[in-house]
């Protein structure tokens, strides 16, 4: 607490306003340039918001090859904050020209009229992506609101060495996962097979997708919201029971506490997405070479379904005066073989372009003991099912965090939290006037 | 000087202040009030151009903010937290100021800096630092004390601890500076009358300090009402802090997480009104007491 916080705030606001006054000149100049005759135009200048690592190195390659379209990278904090920041910038009237947009946030961007329709610019590259991923950037409408960049099919990451030590088989079904969890508690009372995070709605969404959930769908001119559907309740019940029994832990992901548990072998699995190697290598460096990846456990033996956690597209601002140039850059970034190779190597992403997925070579360094890592990922990816996201995912995800926090705290059933997500989502959509089919 | 002879000078000197006040206070407040009376209305799917427009709804958003039970629970939580912080922080600040001012203290300069130093640590950094000390497997103190710092009941104390740690130094400095300004002969006189150091502190120093104490209390009340950094920074570490733990967190959530700027604007005006009532109410209660001489 700071007594002079108001003063500090005013000072910050003052400098920020002054700074933005000072810098408003260059950002406006492309707009001014646009109105002049073509011959007088300098290079088109684009700003690009992204959180993927090393994106500036990739953009440098573009800038060298395209002196007429110069892109400046502005590195953002990822996750829900990035989406909030973009929406705020769009509302304030100074969004970047190009933005990295997570699939689940894209509908909110569209609903806020913050991203441009790229239908004409992307007609020729549609075939480079799987239908499922393409659906995530069109929402099943005629328009195209972004170009798929990466996808996050979920896999089960596990401590191979400790599984061997405790004599645990890699679980093929969720039922086996539950049994393995109990075994771990018996073999080492300080360790858990896994943890349920009430802070990561994205992970839960992926697990619900795997079970066959369809939270939103568009039917003609109305939305259908079905978050508390049977598959989702099944997933919630399963994890709720394991937590209540004490078979798995309830610490959130991505905390220092969690890092330490991963590092020290006190958490033996992490149902995560294909981008997990990057997280593990930076958050649990000590356990390098000890982790392995397998398909997610299934609800019914013999199936091979997965869901998506994360994944993003490259979208173009609705307000940009240089839509064509921006679309050209976004297309290059996600379909040009050289660009995709850089994305994989430098930005550590799992590319959305179908051809690129099968061309991935050496396994991530952290998984050096699993040379077929990318082949496994491709197999999992083929069986991953996603769904259309709704126009107010922020509300739904917030309800997830509050609801599951409370359920963990009070020891109440997780299905109550799922119902809370459904109710909050529908109430918010009704308040804004969306047409909802019940 | 007659009124007419002053010319335009007073207004010229006032201009910078008036311009700054208008730009950074009046205009934003006016805009917030304006926003608070709007709401988005979408039609059909709400996708694409023209599907979303702003409509005027008058005081609907205010009514919704006042009727929101979550907001009032937030006020209750902050009230408990604030009572804790105010009493402990200002109590410690006063105690330290008196100790530092007493003639016999050693290492005064060092203690002064040591107590003030936490204030120089930005709130987010301080909270993260304490957060690490609270987390079970990382904490060096948790096993010794055998308490869970982040469970549903203790988390308020843990947050208050961060606020007190960061705030004591600033408030102590305000009080200490006032103490240093008191003429020494007052103490001399008291000593000649046979007063002990303790009696001097209670009978002489504290009464003179009262206006400064009132000032720090008002500052602290306002800061407590706006508590945001501590719960927001601790939230990812535990499942005991909801997204609407404090009123200001609800404003942040509405504006930036669920994308409802209009409700956020209305709620922030309600918060401003309540802080106004609380701080002026407090001033009114203590006015006669604190500013007797004025």
Please give a structural write-up:
The complex is a heterodimer of chains A (438) and B (294). Chain A folds into two domains: 44-152 and 310-359, D-Maltodextrin-Binding Protein, domain 2 (3-Layer(aba) Sandwich), CATH 3.40.190; 154-308 and 391-432, Periplasmic binding protein-like II (D-Maltodextrin-Binding Protein, domain 2). Helix content of chain A is 49%, strand content 14%. Chain A is built from 18 helices and ten strands. In chain A, strands 1, 2, 3, 4, 7, 8 and 9 form a seven-stranded mixed beta sheet that branches. Chain A has a three-stranded mixed beta sheet with strand order 5-6-10, covered by helices on one side. In chain A, a hairpin with a 2-residue loop joins β5 and β6 (222-225). Chain A is globular. The N and C termini of chain A lie far apart (47 Å). By secondary structure, chain B is mainly alpha-helical. Chain B has one domain: MetI-like (MetI-like fold, Orthogonal Bundle), CATH 1.10.3720.10. Helix content of chain B is 71%, strand content 3%. Chain B has twelve helices and two strands. The longest helix of chain B has 33 residues, at 69-101. Chain B is globular, with a radius of gyration of 24 Å.
Could you name the key traits of this structure?
heterodimer; A: 438 residues; alpha/beta; D-Maltodextrin-Binding Protein, domain 2; 2 domains; 7-stranded mixed beta sheet; 3-stranded mixed beta sheet; 49% helix; B: mainly alpha; MetI-like fold; sugar transport (chain B)
SSE topology:
The complex is a heterodimer of chains A (438) and B (294).
Chain A: H1 5-35, E1 44-50, H2 55-65, E2 69-75, H3 79-92, E3 98-102, H4 106-111, H5 119-122, H6 131-138, E4 147-159, H7 160-166, H8 174-187, H9 201-211, E5 216-219, E6 222-225, H10 230-245, H11 256-264, E7 269-273, H12 276-283, E8 291-295, E9 308-316, H13 323-335, H14 337-347, H15 354-358, H16 373-382, H17 393-410, H18 414-432, E10 436-437
Parallel strand pairs in A: 1-2, 1-3, 6-10
Antiparallel strand pairs in A: 3-9, 4-7, 4-8, 4-9, 5-6
Helix pairs in contact in A: 2-14, 9-10, 13-14, 17-18
Chain B: H1 9-36, E1 38-42, E2 52-56, H2 60-67, H3 69-101, H4 108-120, H5 123-134, H6 142-145, H7 154-180, H8 184-192, H9 197-225, H10 229-234, H11 247-257, H12 261-290
Antiparallel strand pairs in B: 1-2
Helix pairs in contact in B: 1-12, 2-12, 3-7, 3-9, 4-7, 5-7, 7-9, 9-12, 11-12
């Amino acid at each position: 607490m700071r007594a002079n916080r108001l003063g500090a705030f005013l000072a910050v606001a003052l400098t920020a306003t002054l700074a933005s006054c000072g810098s408003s000149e260059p950002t406006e100049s492309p707009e001014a340039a646009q109105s002049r005759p073509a011959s007088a135009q300098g290079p088109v200048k684009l700003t690009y918001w992204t959180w993927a690592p090393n994106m500036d190195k990739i953009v440098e390659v573009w800038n060298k090859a395209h002196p007429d379209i110069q892109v400046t990278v502005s590195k953002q904090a990822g996750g829900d904050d990035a989406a909030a920041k973009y929406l705020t910038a769009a509302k304030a009237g100074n969004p970047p020209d190009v933005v990295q947009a997570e699939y689940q946030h894209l509908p909110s961007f569209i609903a806020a009229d913050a991203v441009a329709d790229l239908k004409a610019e992307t007609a020729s590259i549609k075939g480079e992506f799987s239908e499922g991923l393409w659906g995530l950037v069109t929402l099943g409408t005629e328009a195209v609101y972004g170009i798929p960049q990466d996808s996050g099919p979920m896999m089960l990451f596990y401590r191979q060495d400790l599984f061997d030590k405790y004599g645990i088989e890699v679980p093929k079904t969720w039922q086996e996962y539950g049994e393995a969890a109990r075994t771990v508690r018996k073999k080492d009372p300080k360790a858990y097979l896994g943890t349920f995070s009430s802070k990561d709605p994205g992970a839960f969404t992926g697990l619900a997708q795997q079970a066959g959930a369809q939270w939103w769908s568009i039917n003609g001119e109305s939305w259908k919201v079905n978050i508390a559907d049977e598959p989702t309740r099944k997933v919630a019940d399963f994890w709720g029971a394991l937590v209540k029994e004490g078979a798995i832990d309830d610490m959130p992901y991505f905390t220092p506490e969690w890092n330490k548990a991963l590092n020290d072998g006190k958490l033996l699995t992490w149902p995560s997405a294909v981008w997990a190697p990057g997280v593990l290598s930076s958050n649990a460096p000590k356990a390098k070479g000890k982790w392995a990846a397998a398909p997610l456990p299934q609800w019914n033996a013999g199936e091979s379904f997965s869901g998506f956690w994360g994944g993003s597209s490259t979208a173009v601002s609705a307000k940009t005066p240089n839509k064509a140039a921006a679309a050209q850059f976004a297309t290059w970034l996600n379909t040009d073989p050289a660009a995709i190779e850089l994305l994989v190597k430098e930005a550590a992403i799992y590319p959305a372009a179908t051809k690129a997925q099968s061309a991935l070579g050496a396994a991530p360094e952290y998984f050096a003991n699993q040379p077929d890592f990318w082949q496994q990922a491709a197999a999992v990816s083929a069986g991953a099912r996603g769904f259309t996201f709704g126009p107010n995912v922020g509300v739904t995800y917030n309800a997830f965090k509050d609801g599951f926090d409370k359920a963990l705290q009070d020891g109440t059933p997780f299905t109550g939290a799922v119902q809370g997500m459904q109710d909050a989502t529908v109430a918010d959509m009704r308040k804004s006037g969306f047409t909802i089919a019940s | 000087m007659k009124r007419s002879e002053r010319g335009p000078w007073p207004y010229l000197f006032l201009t910078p202040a008036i311009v700054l006040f208008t730009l950074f206070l009046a205009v934003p407040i006016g805009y917030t009030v304006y926003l608070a009376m709007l709401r988005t209305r979408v039609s059909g799917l709400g996708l694409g151009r023209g599907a979303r427009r702003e409509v005027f709804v008058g005081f609907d958003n205010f009514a919704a903010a006042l009727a929101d039970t979550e907001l009032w629970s937030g006020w209750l939580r902050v009230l408990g937290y604030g009572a804790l912080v105010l009493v402990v922080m200002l109590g410690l600040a006063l105690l330290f100021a008196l100790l530092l001012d007493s003639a016999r203290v050693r290492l005064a300069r060092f203690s002064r800096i040591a107590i003030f130093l936490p204030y120089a640590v930005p709130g987010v950094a301080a909270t993260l630092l304490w957060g690490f000390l609270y987390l079970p497997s990382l904490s060096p103190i948790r096993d010794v004390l055998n308490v869970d710092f982040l469970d549903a009941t203790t988390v308020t104390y843990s947050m208050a601890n961060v606020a007190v740690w960061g705030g004591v130094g600033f408030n102590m400095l305000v009080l200490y500076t006032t103490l240093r300004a008191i003429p020494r002969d007052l103490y001399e006189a008291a000593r000649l009358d046979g007063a002990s150091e303790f009696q001097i502190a209670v009978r002489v120093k504290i009464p003179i300090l009262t206006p400064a104490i009132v000032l720090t209390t008002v500052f602290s009340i306002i800061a407590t009402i706006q508590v945001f950094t501590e719960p927001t920074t601790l939230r990812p570490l535990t499942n005991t802090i909801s997204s609407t733990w404090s009123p200001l967190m609800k404003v942040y959530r509405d504006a930036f997480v669920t994308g409802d700027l209009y409700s956020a604007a209305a709620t922030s005006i309600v918060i401003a009104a309540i802080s106004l009532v609380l701080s002026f109410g407090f001033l009114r209660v203590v006015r006669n007491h604190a500013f007797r001489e004025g």
